[in-house]
Amino acid sequence: MSASSGDLAVSLPVDTTTFTATSMLPVGLVDSRHLLVLADDVAVEEIEALALSLDERAGWVGASRLQLFPGAELHGPWALDDDMRRMLGLPDWVAQVMLLECVPQRAGALPPELAGVDPMADAFPTAMPTGAELVALIHLRAIARRLAGAIRLVDTSPDDGEARITLVVPDPESSVMLAIYAPVWIAPDALAALLAPIAPGAVPALETSAPRGAVGFDALSHDDLERLTETIGADVLDAVWRRTERERAQAEREEAEALAAGEELVEYREGYAVVAPIDAETPGWGGIEVRVEGTNELPIAVRGEPWAADGVVVTSVVWRPVDIAHAHALAPSRTRRRERAAARELIEHVAATIARESGGVIVDEDGFLVGLNIL
Fold it and tell me: What is this structure's pTM?
């Protein structure tokens, strides 16, 4: 059954696939609760899926009650008519809201040096959210950014008793990073060659350098050795030194034997990077960085993959402007917006190519799965 009235909430109950209309929007709570603000083209299933991508404990716990995690729930959504939209001070595109039920937890005032850095922090100048409330708001902002929505924040800490209302509209274009989680490792030269057709100028940036001077035990002074001996004991120190010398001698023998046999020496790395310009013919534009490394820390959206049980390879593709501060600017200039848009397009092509060749999946910086239909 679907709701036909603008003041009814529509939810997906736990035990059925049909929609159920429930109560009216609790107007008395809107000036003491944060709201997730959405357009009319957002389905409740999308909100549920995103919540599940952020916390495995998320899910429906009752009619119109979507748990984000224990202690934080979204109630609704409620459709808004024109009068309710005006009363809440929301823009014309807003068609529905969900209300956050979470016990407020507040810390100290916003430090002056952090003012203007994060609109969500700026909404609480005298008592910033912390604990579960902060986590819930971070989840709401991620969901709002993915769904082109907003969050209506309520600060009830002012001494005059008047709640401070702030509408934060996360910019979907501000996320200029994608990560590919995959079961296989692509070598630096192979990755540069793979990306060359879509990212001209892509080259490995291995960032290696030989150590200067003595290393290991050889780098310790006489006094350092004496202190180390007193700390761990002469027998333990001698055993560690002998084992280190055996391992070094063994490595030198294997390298000499490989060279004598004409074999290629393979350097094992924990990670590497490939860099490419966004557009080499556009002065002042930066590039992208493709960083590859192994990891055992997986976003929830990836944990169900059959190849993810014992660790995977993660490839992060990020925008690197000439001035790195531009990557985090709240109001970038027109030139930087053009550069960012070009970087996003290139990053999407690079991520789609790597995912296709490595059999991986793509997620954004909030941990949500991303589907790219790029040939």
Answer: 0.73
